[in-house]
Predict the structure.
Amino acid sequence: MLALTRPRSRGPLVASVLSLGLLAPLAHADTLTVGPDLEVYDFDSITQAVNLASPGDTILVAPGDYPGFQVTGKPLTILGSGSGQTRLTSKFVSAFSRRGPCAFRP
């Protein structure tokens, strides 16, 4: 006679795997660079870097003059090379995110 056994629940395992899959993108943050020479830096404008950055990324900005930029909807850290070295040529800088802080330091 065949004995029927109840299969073990995989609910907790599936939930764990799914939560790891959802948290994995948040756990890895990249560092993008902005500067005048595209052979050395990833981007030549802060706006380009912001548009292609993922939430949690850091953008390092080389000395120079840059137009203003806008961050909407993703937490980023944008670091300049120091006061008086990284300059914004426009007063327009907007950083707003409902999913975490955005920080800009010249």
